[in-house]
Write a structure and sequence with these properties.
The complex is a heterodimer of chains A (about 140) and B (about 400). Chain A is α+β, with helices and mostly antiparallel strands and about 140 residues long. In chain A, about 40% of the residues lie in helices and about 20% in strands. The chains are: A alpha+beta (about 140), B alpha/beta (about 400). The structure holds pyridoxal-5'-phosphate.
């Protein structure tokens, strides 16, 4: 199975790799997946006073599609409001990266990571939690 | 690191066909097109003669009589023929088969079919090294046991089973011993009669021969073993396997056997040195690298390594434009389950996801291994820089203490 150029680019030159300070109130952290399942994503957002995501970082243990999905997700997150970020749908990642059917779960995981980071941010700041996590299995 | 040539370190999946084998096969497509079963004209005679010669070449390699070689389409068919064929042929003696959890799917799924047909199958565990426990094997043999099916060496780990000891147990209890020897024939000395193997499956494309041709060795004397044919037809191969013989394929298989018999010793010596170089370099230059399976009882050209906190398919993507290996990671299979073979060795799912199998071959050069060492060092470092669990591990966080959201 051949991967799309976009996927390969995100895999080889991942954007926004790194770690934000978890204890910072402006930072929301999402850690999803499990080592036994072969993928773990940690996605972090940093939200400014206006409620815009001014920075996003990720680290992912997983296959190429998981890494590319999270890299692309951080790119999309930057500059978005929290509400806009919540509207990111995994199928948009699937389309953009041309993920094959067996890799759709990687995009689902990236969507979960976004939601989980936002939830963490909202809880930390005493905001109303507007995130509805997907139910899997 | 760009390469003009793709590096192939996946010889356990299949081997390149040796050019000498190709040369031997070519005359049997157009110039000598005969059907080996055509008894009444020179085309048929020529084909039959070529098949007989190949049968000798193969029999010589494994030290059996040429009449004991039944040609098939490959090891999958030979495994099926042995297991289902014995089950049917020996139905009056019993219906119980013993095998290993780490067998190839061709054996495991044939055994599942036997269960559906009313048979009983015991799937034995292996130890951490991937070896059968001989006491467990002996204890599993019952009055209705007809067959023990244990592979000579495993395709994923290269671990070699104690064939002689298994053969002795089978002999003592009067049960047939079948072995899937796909990964060993042509690579290391294999002498089924010396270790008490009565049926043995193998295939040309793992020993520098063509794809689509294999064989089942069936012992003819003491004991005289028979299997029920699994395909009905013209009664070729002493009635055990019908179908017009694949003459060019069989000629190539024979040539491959002849070359293997001559060159095996030098190939083994050279490849075990290269394998050790690859393994030692990676284990000593990278942290947290684990060797999967027995180091002592192992094929000379195989190493299966887990690079902790790096996912195998992702790792392969860092170099797979230039180099081919394989992984036990779930992401390389359709099932999303990591390698059942590595799980049977007691590896956690995480280490199974992190495994890479390197299998060298006759055409592997030292510079290929040097390339692999560098590619893996770079790839593992890249993937660990990206890995949140590597970061946690480095910070001393106990990964077991985290509540993961399994998905
Ligand atoms: C141990 C083992 N048995 C059986 C097979 C199947 O061989 P074939 O491709 O000839 O059917 C393989 C190869 O994939 C193998 O490694």
């Amino acid at each position: 199975m051949a991967y799309s150029d976009k996927l390969l680019d995100h895999f080889k030159n991942p954007r926004n790799v790194g770690t934000l300070d978890k204890s910072d109130k402006k930072v929301g952290t999402g850690l999803v997946g499990a080592p036994e399942c072969g993928d773990v994503m940690r996605l972090q957002i940093q939200v400014n006073e206006e409620g815009l995501i001014e920075d996003a970082k990720f680290k992912t243990f997983g296959c190429g599609s998981a890494i590319a999905s999270s890299s692309l997700a951080t790119e999309w997150l930057k500059g978005k409001s929290v509400d806009e970020a919540l509207a990111i749908d995994n199928m948009a990642l699937v389309e953009e990266l041309a993920l094959p059917p067996v890799k759709i779960h990687c995009s689902v995981l990236a969507e979960d990571a976004i939601k989980s980071a936002i939830k963490d941010y909202q809880e930390k700041n005493g905001l109303e939690v507007t995130v509805v996590m997907n139910e899997h299995h | 690191m760009s390469k003009d040539r793709l590096i192939y370190l996946d010889n356990n999946a299949t081997t390149p066909t040796d050019p000498r084998v190709v040369d031997a096969m070519l005359p049997f497509f157009y110039e000598n097109p005969g059907n080996a079963a055509s008894r009444n004209h020179p085309f048929g005679w020529k084909a039959e003669e070529a098949v007989d010669y190949a049968r000798e070449q193969i029999a010589n390699l494994i030290k059996v009589d040429s009449k004991e070689i039944i040609f098939t389409s490959g090891a999958t068919e030979a495994d099926n023929l042995a297991i289902k064929g014995v089950f049917e042929m020996y139905a009056r003696k019993g219906n119980h088969i013993i095998t290993l959890k780490t067998e190839h799917k061709a054996v495991l799924d044939a055994c599942k079919k036997v269960e559906k047909m009313g048979g009983e199958v015991t799937y034995l565990d292996v130890d951490r090294e991937g070896l059968v426990n001989l006491a467990d094997l002996e204890a599993a043999i019952k009055d209705n046991t007809i067959l023990v099916s244990i592979m000579w060496a495993n395709n994923e780990t290269g671990v070699i089973q104690p064939m002689k000891e298994i053969g002795a147990i089978c002999e003592k209890h009067g049960v047939l011993f079948m072995s899937d020897a796909t990964q060993v024939v042509g690579k290391i000395p294999v002498d089924p009669k010396a270790v008490g193997v009565h049926l043995m499956a193998f295939t040309a494309h793992k020993m520098y021969g063509p794809k689509g041709v294999g064989a089942l060795f069936v012992n003819r004397k003491k004991p005289r073993v028979k299997v029920t044919a699994q395909m009905d037809g013209g009664g070729h191969e002493r009635g055990m396997r019908s179908g017009t013989l694949n003459v060019p394929g069989i000629v190539g298989f024979g040539k491959a056997a002849e070359i293997a018999a001559k060159e095996m010793d030098q190939d083994m010596a050279r490849l075990s040195k290269l394998r050790d170089k690859l393994e030692n370099s990676l284990v000593s230059s990278l942290e947290e690298v684990y060797i999967n399976g027995s180091v002592e009882h192992r094929m000379p050209h195989v190493t299966n390594l887990s690079f902790k906190h790096v996912e195998g398919e992702g790792l392969m993507m860092t170099f797979n434009q230039n180099m081919a290996v394989s992984s036990g990671s779930a992401c390389t299979s359709a099932s999303l389950e990591p390698s059942y073979v590595l799980i049977a060795l007691g590896l956690g799912d995480d280490l199974a996801h992190s495994s890479i199998r390197f299998s060298l071959g006759r055409f592997t050069k030292e510079e290929d291994v040097d390339y692999a060492i560098e590619a893996l060092q770079k790839g593992v470092t890249h993937m660990r820089d990206l890995s949140p669990i590597w970061e946690m591990y480095k910070e001393g966080i106990d990964l077991e203490s985290i509540e993961w959201s399994a998905h």
